[in-house]
Design a protein that fits this description.
The complex is a heterodimer of chains A (about 150) and B (about 475). Helices cover about 50% and strands about 5% of the residues of chain A. In chain A, helix 1 crosses helix 3, helix 1 crosses helix 4 and helix 2 crosses helix 3. Chain A is mostly helical and about 150 residues long. Chain A has a single domain, classed as Winged helix-like DNA-binding domain superfamily/Winged helix DNA-binding domain (Arc Repressor Mutant, subunit A), CATH 1.10.10. Chain B has 13 helices and 16 strands. In chain B, the strands form three sheets. Chain B has a seven-stranded mixed sheet with strand order 8-14-9-10-11-12-13. A six-stranded mixed sheet of chain B has the order 3-2-1-7-16-15, covered by helices on one side. Classes of the chains: A mainly alpha (about 150), B alpha/beta (about 475). Bound molecules: flavin-adenine dinucleotide (FAD).
């Protein structure tokens, strides 16, 4: 399930995807433009670093950058690192499985069975989308550029 | 209806399974030529052994040539009488590799004139030395001066086999003790502690060998043994694709721990990954692939490619009687020693450099080799001519998702393809039959469609 962690992590990754090549971005900057607490964001970026999606450099001139091209990073891959197996409801997961209390016979529960199908559809969609594609979507631009755009259109 | 001729270079398991796929298509009359210099088709490096104790390291139930009919090989075993004196009452049994060679030959018998078939399959006993493409087809040049032409060619030349014979530094562990001239009392050093080493020890044991055997490898790890496994069901949604090797291994360990808490075996997890390994590999960034090869490959392989229980018993017995020692360490060099022996300079892990005498030094270090290192080989020649290129890690030839050969210019060939271990760079787990047969099924479709097209496709897809 998409948690806050997954959502903010993805926003941070899209933010980094928009940074010019070779430039490091401070986590303060990301936190500010998406109104995320910096502490929460640092924890998220730490996990993304462990999984090999971002590089980090400490100290002056430090910050974060994607560890490979945004076109090589799949949205679904980032989300699995932050949220675990993709699944719409907990009992429709195999390794992070939790019982759905309202389900008496899970093997035969129609809702669960269809949700297992849904999760395959979810991974098919999210594993097909790259960060570069997300970064190119107008709806995900940060607040600054959106207000600039609005001003231009006015 | 499609007609036309496909030339397959290499008649090992991959070449044969692909041929059977192409010829078995209900709607087609296409013809296939297999170019294979060995004395038998279906032999290749894996199934040419006549040693009965050289067993398949995959259970019979996984060795069918047809993924949609997984018991095909097992049924063949029962029907052909080949397993008459074996306990193969269920598909969890491990039979001689030479039987698999017979199975592969039987697979194509309906089309091979020599075996009473209809002649749509032709076996040309020669080596291919070059392949070129023309506007309408391919020309495969043979070492005897002839040329075979077809509408498409498939390279199924398998593993880059280490040079053996005169001049090679070490004898190949894939030869029989008799062929290597190993006497019962001789001391033997084997490089590698994997499945090839096990083959050697098993064959030596059967030949009543009583000398000392030292098996040496970087980690001194033996392959794990097969047990009946009941693979978990894992979906793509469960697996952390695209992460660094360390993260992935961490996840794997966590998942094994979780499975154990559910009363399951680690094999259930490793085997559950089989349908996903190619996607996993392709999602790894190059840095992670190279890290995996350096740091994790051995651990992965000893769990993924396991030995039959019979082989384990034989190895344990050899260790228990002191005949066999399996050690982590390195061979630093070999010089001529006393009495025609070889003086091996070795360093065992945690120990000092020492010199030990052996009558034989065998190379059992397996199958990961630069495919183009031998420039006189067909693959080496294709690479030097720019018709093919190796991947950055030099694991194999670069192919696109349909197994079409990618040239030095990044263009996928419309009519030259590759199958099997040669395509390891793209698919990684593509050396064992359960993976090869799936690849053959889809490649047969690609090739049949390609040569059924009325005109040769002019446009070629750019692959970068
Ligand atoms: C010792 C050993 C045991 C194995 N056991 C198992 C097992 O039990 N189960 C399993 O699933 N997998 C096993 N494998 C994995 C094995 O890689 C495959 O099952 C199989 O060998 C792959 O077949 P192949 O045809 O692709 O390659 P190969 O077996 O290498 O065959 C390639 C063929 O191409 C021919 N060739 C090469 N160059 C040319 C040329 N220029 N012109 C014409 N012909 C050429 C060679 O003569 C050879 O016959 C084993 C591998 C080894 C090495």
């Amino acid at each position: 399930m998409l948690t806050m962690k997954g959502k903010y992590g993805l926003k941070a990754m899209v933010h980094l995807a928009g940074a010019p090549d070779g430039r490091l971005t401070l986590s303060e900057e990301i936190a500010r433009s998406h109104s995320i607490s910096k502490k929460f964001l640092d924890a998220i970026l730490g996990e993304l670093r462990n999984a090999g999606f971002v590089h980090a450099r400490k100290g002056r001139g430090g910050g974060y950058a994607l560890s490979r091209a945004a076109s090589d990073i799949r949205v679904g891959h980032v989300l699995r690192v932050l949220d675990g197996p993709l699944a719409p409801i907990p009992c429709a997961s195999r390794t992070a499985y939790r019982r759905c209390d309202d389900c008496r016979d899970e093997e035969a529960c129609a809702v669960r069975l269809v949700m297992l199908e849904v999760r395959n559809a979810i991974s098919a969609v999210l594993d097909n989308r790259t960060l570069a594609e997300l970064a190119a979507m107008p709806g995900l631009l940060d607040e600054d550029s959106r207000s600039r755009e609005l001003a231009l259109n006015a | 209806m499609s007609a036309g001729r496909v030339v397959i270079v290499g008649g090992g398991a991959s070449g044969i399974i692909l041929a059977a796929r192409l010829l078995g298509r209900p709607d087609s009359r296409l013809k296939v030529a297999i170019v294979e210099p060995r004395e038998a088709i279906g032999a290749g490096v894996a199934y040419s052994t006549d040693e009965p104790a050289h067993l398949l390291n995959t259970r019979a139930g996984s060795m069918s040539a047809y993924p949609e009919d997984p018991d095909h090989f097992w049924r063949w075993l029962l029907q052909s009488g080949a397993a008459a004196d074996l306990d193969c009452s269920d598909p969890f049994c491990f039979v001689s590799r030479r039987l698999y060679r017979r199975y592969l030959a039987d697979l194509v018998a309906p089309w091979l004139a020599e075996l009473g078939g209809d002649g749509r399959l032709q076996w040309i006993q020669a080596s291919a030395v070059d392949v070129s493409q023309t506007a309408t087809g391919v020309a495969v040049a043979l070492d005897d001066g002839r040329t075979e032409i077809g509408r498409a060619a498939v390279l199924a030349t398998g593993h880059a086999v280490p040079a053996s014979g005169a001049g090679a530094p070490y004898a190949s562990a894939w030869s029989s003790p008799a062929a290597l001239g190993i006497e019962p009392a001789d001391d033997v050093l084997v490089l590698g502690t994997g499945l090839s080493m096990i083959d050697t020890v098993v064959a030596l044991s059967r030949a009543k060998h009583r000398g000392r055997i030292l098996a040496l490898s970087r980690h001194g790890l033996l392959p794990q043994v097969h047990r009946r496994s009941h693979p978990l069901k894992l979906d793509a949604a469960d697996i952390p694709f695209g992460t660094q090797t360390s993260f992935l291994l961490h996840w794997l360990r966590d998942t094994v721990r979780w499975a154990a808490s559910e009363g399951r075996d680690w094999r259930d997890v490793v085997d559950a990954l089989r349908p996903h390994t190619q996607t996993l590999w392709q999602a790894l960034p190059l840095s992670a692939k190279s890290r995996f090869i350096r740091h994790a490959r051995t651990y992965w392989e000893v769990h993924r490619h396991r030995m039959p229980p019979e082989a384990e018993q034989s190895i344990r017995a050899a260790v228990a009687t002191g005949r066999l020692a399996i050690r982590a360490g390195r061979l630093l060099g070999v010089e001529a020693g006393e009495d025609g022996q070889k003086a091996a300079r070795i360093r065992l892990r945690g120990g000092a450099e020492e010199v030990r005498g052996f009558h034989h030094v065998l190379d059992g270090t397996g199958i990961l080799r630069d495919p183009a290192a031998d420039t006189s080989s067909l693959v080496g020649r294709l690479v030097s001519r720019g018709l093919a290129r190796t991947d950055p890690l030099r694991l194999g030839l670069d192919v696109d998702g349909t197994c079409a050969l990618v040239g030095a210019d990044g263009q996928a060939s419309p009519r030259i393809f590759a199958v099997g271990p040669l395509t390891k760079a793209r698919f990684w787990e593509i050396t064992a039959i359960p993976d090869i047969r799936v690849q053959c099924a889809s490649l047969a479709q690609t090739v049949a469609a390609r040569i059924a097209a009325p005109e040769p496709t002019r446009e070629v897809a750019a692959v970068v």
